[in-house]
Specification:
Blueprint (H helix, E strand, L loop, with lengths): L1 H26 L4 H13 L2 H26 L7 H18 L4 H30 L3 H24 L19 H6 L8 H18 L1 H11 L1 H6 L4 H27 L11 H11 L4 H25 L4 H15 L1 H18 L1
Length: about 350
Amino acid sequence: MKGLKDLFTALAAVILGLLAGAVLMLAIGANPLEGFSYLFRGGLMNIERIGNTLATATTLTLTGLAMAFAFRTGLFSIGASGQMLMGGLAATAIGLSLQLPKWEMLTIILIASMLAGAIWGFIPGYLKARFNVHEVVSTIMLNWVAYWTVYYTVPAYFKAKLETESARIPDFASLKVPWLTEIFKGSFINLGVFVALGAAIVIAIVLNRTVLGYELKAVGFNRHAAEFAGINVPKNMALSLGISGALAGLGGATYYVGYAVNMQIGVLPSQGMDAIAVALLGANSPTGVVLASLFFGVLHSGKGFMNAMTGIPPEIGDTIIAIIIYFAATSVLFTRLFDGLKAKLRRKQ
């Protein structure tokens, strides 16, 4: 029944977000049906665009899993952007410093990006466990520490001709592979899609089939009861944010050495904030996160096509996403509506 309730909540948030987008299109004199047609066709109309949608969804899946994992354990992290940056910086630094066979290089890059993200997640976890520093404050502050770390490090050690970006990632350090690019007709899709799916499976197993997952969820449901039951609450808090950071760090690797060709400074990746929407819409479950990432991937891939074909501003697509976030965040309203409808059906029977 909980799965049905989560599905109802997600569908309600999506429908209300699309309705709000339709109202905005009408307000600017556009045809909503035409706008939505091109919005979704832009992400799904051919194999190349499907590949681009999957590439966009790849990073969102990993950052969404990072947020969902923290939420499931009772912690509200907003640090995915900074953890992405640190994971991406580690991946970029290794890719531009070492010369190894591709598979050895990619293994080292993925491990390093996970470690960098895990460290950046463990810091606020430790501060929360040791000094009760609120994770929202510490993760936001660490986002900007990561931002300025990248801002200094890339021009100082890894710059290209331009001061604002790193040198191009060589082919042997890139998650792009020719056979996958050829299948999807030159799209941005890369091996990160398999990393994201593997991570979703691992997190599902950890949360639902292990003692560690049980303890982490117990802390999230009621940390005082968990402590009374003998669970080490501070350790689990720090561990939870460390694992969350590792997932976001992987997301940084799939973006900066997979989707992109180099690392630019002065940009805080939006995927870290979009990940909150992905986690909320996916009801903090690995399967839900994958599906929500695909949906947002379609919106992100299609909004430019919608603008080119109809003149509707691409910001309409961003607004739809923002409204879906709002309704997903207020899911308690839909839960009450669902319970009310269920009660009425029972009375009629």
